[in-house]
Amino acid sequence: MMDIETAARQVSAYLARTREAPLAVRVDPEIIRRHLRERYTFDAAVPIDDVVTDVTDMLWRWTEHATNPRHFGLFRPGVEPACVIADLIAAAYDPNLATWDFSPAANEIERHVLLFLMRRFGLDPDAGTAQFTSGGQESNHTAVVVALTDRCRGVGEGGIRSLGGDPVFYLSGEGHHSFDKVAHATGLGRRALRFVPVDSALRMNPDALDAMIARDCADGRLPFLVVATAGTTSAGVVDPLDRIADVAQRHGLWYHVDAAWGGAAVVSDRLRGVLAGIERADSITCDAHKWLSVPVGAGMFFCRRRAAVDSAFATETAYVPDQALDTRTYPFITSLQWSRRFIGLKVFLLLTTHGQQGIAARLEHQTAMGDRLRERLTAAGFSILNQTPLPVVCFTHAAIAGDARAHNEIAIELGNRQLAWISRTRLDGRIPALRACITHVETDRADVDALVEGLQDVLARR
Question: Coil, helix or strand for 440?
Fold first, then answer.
């Protein structure tokens, strides 16, 4: 029977050859389905050595490998080996973090990490609270539930039907569509999500936001939440956080910052200024798996006021040990989750094995590579379409400008030729663009130059 040491050697071997890993995969679903049907009927046991060997082979052949440094993808950094070890430990010990009593060590390790990051965000750990989540979707869902409970009194008991109007909340047109799903899941309805226009730099327009809130109030709606974005998915843009905070404060709305990707910048003293104003947020989303080389998922939710979270999720049950009213943490009464995996261990091992300055140096290197990519693209005749100090670069070329199909074909050809993996998007919902994001710790100048040279070659062949 395969032991853990053997499996660990296989993982180590994979991590050692990520530069060889395929950047794109083109396979008919039926090929994989037939392979599974023929080999695994579940009628009889299969030796684990055979299964693991086959599964790792399938993953190698039929996976888009974001672990390759030339994968300039959607906030999918390479994996830190210490974090892989953390997931192995978490699986082996299998602590349940629903209550402090179930796993004191795991709960305190997570709390230690979260308090460090709360301070970096400028929130008071003594007054606030934080928790690990499955990802940004859950963190943003948590924010909406907490904001709705805090700003629409009585909704926790009486539901939305008990309110005197329709609750609405606000997001940039470039914001993350997790909130669209949240609006549905919470029963608010998708029309409750109001999309605020962006300016020429793709940032939320605070004046437009102010006018929308005033109009909704006049129409009898109940504005309760404003969501700013610190690092939009398409363009890496940071909304004007301070000005949006002013608008939210003036209207008495909860202020949430979705910093799922860009929030990691607070680890760096040099980069944290990009997020000026985030310290005024009532709550913050940040995903360690988007820019800190942590395997998915490792979301985090931070809140300025512990009482607001308690009001949203408090519950009592006879079949869980008594919840002591002291400094111990009981995540099942402060979050959407009940039973919960030891998510925070991988972030703890990352911080302990590299230190704040080591992680900051990584982020600053990747930001520098983003600057280099902009310079090389501009020199090669491409046009940069977004404005951000963070390493997301959206671009086009005069030969394909406005042609969404051409952008798509170029991205696909780059991947098929194993030159690089980039994505494509539409800025402001209408402008086709190619998009390269640098979040891999090993992406270097040669990788950036190879991307530009590959783009030139693919474009010349058209």
Answer: coil
Rounded to the nearest angstrom, the gap between the alpha carbon of residue 419 and the centroid of all alpha carbons in its chain is: 26
- Residues 115/120/122/127 CA torsion (nearest 10 deg): 0
Matching CATH number, 88-349, of 3.30.420.250, 3.40.640.10, 3.30.70.3270, 3.30.428.10: 3.40.640.10
Exposed, middle or buried: residue 361 (CB in 10 Å: 0-12, 13-18, 19+)?
Answer: middle
The fold for domain 355-461 equals: Aspartate Aminotransferase, domain 1 (3.90.1150)
The tens digit of pLDDT for each residue in 356-380 reads 999 999 999 999 999 999 999 999 9
Whole-Å CA distances, 301 to 101, 130, 235, 428, 454 = 22, 5, 23, 27, 39
Show me where the domains of the chain are located. Answer: 4-68, 88-349, 355-461
Is 270 within 8 Å of 94 (Cβ atoms)?
no
- Quickly tell me which residue has 């959607």 as its tokens: 74
User: For residues 343 and 110, is the Cβ–Cβ distance under 8 A?
Assistant: yes
Helix (H, G, I), strand (E, B) or coil at 294: coil
Q: What sign does the CA torsion over 76, 80, 85, 89 have?
A: negative
Tell me which residue of 176, 165, 240 sits closest to 209, measured CA to CA. 240
**What pLDDT is recorded for position 368?**
97
Residue 452 to residue 462: CA distance in whole angstroms: 16
* DSSP assignment string, 167-207: EEEEEETTS-THHHHHHHHTTS-GGGEEEEPB-TTS-B-HH
Whether 355-461 and 88-349 are alike in CATH topology: the answer is no
DSSP-derived letter for residue 295 is: P
- Tell me the CA end-to-end span of the chain in Å, nearest whole number: 53
For every residue of 87-135, DSSP letters joined together read HHHHHHH---TTSTTT-HHHHHHHHHHHHHHHHHHT--TTT-EEEEESS
- CA–CA distance, 69 with 160 (Å, rounded to integer): 47
Strand partners, 432: 426
pLDDT of residue 327: 57
Burial code (b: 16+ CB inside 10 Å, e: under 16) for 79-96 equals: bbebbbbbbeebeeeebe
This prediction's pTM = 0.94
247 touches 212 (CB < 8 A):
no
Give 5's pLDDT tier (boundaries 50, 70, 90): confident
Q: How far is CA 225 from CA 144, 184, 194, 209, 216, in A?
A: 8, 16, 10, 11, 13
Cα–Cα distance, 436 to 420 (Å, whole number): 10
Q: Which helix (H) or strand (E) holds 224?
A: strand 222-229
